Structures are given as C-alpha cells and as structure tokens.
C-alpha cells in the first residue's frame, strides 16, 4: 500500500499522499447541501417525495388513494375522522466533482492553482464518502479527460485521486488546449444524474456567455456548486517594477509601473468575478472562492462544517 501512495515531491504536481490525508479533515464536512433528491434509490438524505419510508413526517386527514395500512387508528379514534401517517423517504444524492486541469491552472505565486484544485476535489470526494453518498468525478486536462463512475467506495475516491495526480503531472509539459470552459460544461452534462450534487473546480478564466446556457442545463438536473480557484497575482499586478515572466517556453518583460495598466488589469478580473457571482445567484448555485496562498480547509469548513448555518434545506 505504501508503494501505491508514493508520489513525486515536485511541488508543481499534486501529491497523492496529501490528497489521501484529506479524508480525515473531510469527516468534519457534515453539512453538505441537503438537497431534495429526485432519484428513488435508497440513500441517506431526506427527499421532497413522501411515502412509506423510515422517518415519520406528519399525520393528516385520510384521502382517497392513501394506503389503509398507514391509517393512524389512535388519532382516528380520538377525532372520529380517519387520519393517515405520512413518512419522509430517504433518497440518494450522488456527488460528482468536475476538476479543470487545463494549462491556465498551471500558475501560482506560492502554490499552483492546479495543485489547490486537486486538493479541493479530493476533499469534496472524501466528504461525499463520509456522508455515505455515491461519489464520482471527471478530470479535464489539456487534451483529454477521464471519468470515474459514481460509487459508494473508497476505491472510487482513490482512483479519482490518482487521476488528479496524473493530470497535474502532465501540466509539466505544455500542450495545445483541446477544451474551453464551455466544452467542459457541455461535456459534463453527459455524466450528471438527476438529483446529483455537482462541484465544478476551476479558475473560470474563460467564463463567458457561452457557459451560461450549459450551466443552466446542469442546474436543471442537480445542484451546481462552483469552486473558484484564484491566485493573488490575478487580482492585481505585483508592486510597480519590471518583471521577467515566462510560460516555460518563452520569456518577456512585464512593466507593472503603469497606473492605467494596473487599473485595467484589476477591473478585468473583477468583471469576470462579478459575472460568475451573478450567474451563480440566478441559478441558485453555490459559489466558493479559494486563494492559492491559503489553506482550503477553512473555506470548506465555513461552508459545510458542523457549525455551518449554510446547510441547504
């Protein structure tokens, strides 16, 4: 087993060992969105559907078509009017984590966005398993993708983690991009089951109008949550000076002394964030932001921890 968890110590690639270790912290994320599931498979979450289930919900006046086995004879005898018991069924809520590991994620001032995205994806997958949900995932790289079928199994999460590590390692070699964000969202629709909780982990650098329609379609089938990964250098340029910057193949100089350039740079980032926030509000989708220079765990704990008041009903 130790050989399985061995991975390169290269900080530019995600560590399998670190992602496996997140399973312990993920146990504290007990307030995952409490959704009204649409599938009729047995599971661990309350459903909008009512019927014969494990948890008593209420007593109401008997209506034609109600199961006579559900009649509450004590209330009926006391009120002289037939009453029936209503139960709240448990329904399954599959978890699907979409991780964007394209070339733009291979960037960071202290830690790479790709490494942070892998950690977020792994933590969410472990939290789903801890909640006794079926968990699966899809990883999009520069030229290919891999999907892990949703299962209620630790092996599924480990398979997903190894895929994350493999794709993050491939970013060490710059390759032509096959996917844009709109392609990723459109392709993801193939994997989303009705009633799913969907997490999309990305920097959303190419989020545009063409993405809105695909997000709307995804939101029709399940609950969408956007995990926005950003680096402080994307928010504003570094202190005024001249910097050498490169993409691994070529190098140029960046002059950050221009006030106009700094203003346009900050406004472009803020405009994209505002668009992302507005879209999430229209779709009633969750939106979490992760700074690459900070730990992912406080953000997840505020959203889904035991003391969180944001659990969805």
Pattern of helices and strands: HHEEHEEHEEHHEHEHEEHEH
* Category by helix and strand content: alpha/beta
Helical percentage: 25-40%
Count of DSSP E strands? 11
Distance from first to last alpha carbon: 40 Å
Overall CATH architecture of the largest domain: 3-Layer(aba) Sandwich
Q: Mean pLDDT score, rounded?
A: 85
Question: Which fold name corresponds to the CATH topology of the largest domain?
Answer: Rossmann fold
Question: Quick one: CATH superfamily of the largest domain?
Answer: von Willebrand factor, type A domain
Q: According to CATH, what is the class of the largest domain?
A: Alpha Beta
What kind of sheet is the major sheet?
6 strands, mixed
User: Which stretches are poorly predicted, pLDDT < 50 over at least 5 residues?
Assistant: 1-8, 34-53, 309-313
Work out the radius of gyration: 23 Å
Q: What count of domains describes the coordinates?
A: 2
Q: What tags apply to this protein structure?
A:
313 residues; 10 helices; 3-stranded antiparallel β-sheet; elongated; single chain; alpha/beta; Rossmann fold; 6-stranded mixed β-sheet; disordered C terminus; 2 domains; disordered N terminus
């Amino acid at each position: 087993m130790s050989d399985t968890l061995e991975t390169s110590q290269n900080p530019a690639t995600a560590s399998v060992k670190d992602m496996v270790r997140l399973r312990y912290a993920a146990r504290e994320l007990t307030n995952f969105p409490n959704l009204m599931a649409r599938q009729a498979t047995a599971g661990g979450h309350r459903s909008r559907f009512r019927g014969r289930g494990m948890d008593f919900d209420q007593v109401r006046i008997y209506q034609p078509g109600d199961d006579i086995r559900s009649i509450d004879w004590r209330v009926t005898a006391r009120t002289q009017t037939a009453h029936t018991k209503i139960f709240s069924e448990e329904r399954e809520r599959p978890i699907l984590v979409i991780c964007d590991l394209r070339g733009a994620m291979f960037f960071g001032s202290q830690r790479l966005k790709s490494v942070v995205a892998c950690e977020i994806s792994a933590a969410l997958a472990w939290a789903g398993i801890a909640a006794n949900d079926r968990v699966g995932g899809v990883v999009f790289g520069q030229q290919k993708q891999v999907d892990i079928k949703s299962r209620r199994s630790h092996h599924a999460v480990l398979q997903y983690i190894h895929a994350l590590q493999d794709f993050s390692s491939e970013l060490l070699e710059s390759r032509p991009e096959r996917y844009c964000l709109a392609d990723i969202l459109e392709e993801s629709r193939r994997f989303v089951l009705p009633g799913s909780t969907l997490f999309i982990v990305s920097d959303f650098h190419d989020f545009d109008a063409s993405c809105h329609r695909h997000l709307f379609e995804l939101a029709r089938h399940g609950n969408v949550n956007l995990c926005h990964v950003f680096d402080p250098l994307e928010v504003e340029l570094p202190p005024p000076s001249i910097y050498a910057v490169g993409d691994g193949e070529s190098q140029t100089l960046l002059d950050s002394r221009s006030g106009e350039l700094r203003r346009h740079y900050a406004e472009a980032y803020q405009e994209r964030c505002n668009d992302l926030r507005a879209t999430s509000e229209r779709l009633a989708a969750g939106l979490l932001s992760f700074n690459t220079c900070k730990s992912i765990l406080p953000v997840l704990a505020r959203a889904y921890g035991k003391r969180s008041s944001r659990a969805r009903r």
